[in-house]
Backbone:
């Protein structure tokens, strides 16, 4: 982000492919290779866009959620 426009914030398209912070491993090498930072970003909203709900899309999140469970449910 740049804020040199009179206090306004400007997003650059080149910033879309960079991870803004920490990530959680996906558990899938091919998916990790496509995501900025190599994993699911933390502290942000992630939306899964599918043509039809219920085709197994939540399986993409299962390894990441399993890795976070011990931390979240102490």
Residues:
């Amino acid at each position: 982000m740049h804020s040199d426009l009179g206090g306004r914030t400007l997003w650059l398209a080149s910033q879309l492919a960079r991870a803004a912070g920490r990530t959680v491993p996906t558990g899938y090498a091919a998916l990790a290779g496509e995501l900025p930072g190599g994993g699911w970003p933390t502290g942000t909203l992630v939306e899964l866009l599918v043509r039809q709900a219920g085709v197994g899309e939540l399986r993409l999140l299962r390894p990441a959620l399993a890795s976070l469970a011990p931390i979240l449910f102490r």
Observations:
- The chain is about 25% helix and 20% strand.
- Residues 23 and 41 are 4 Å apart (CA to CA).
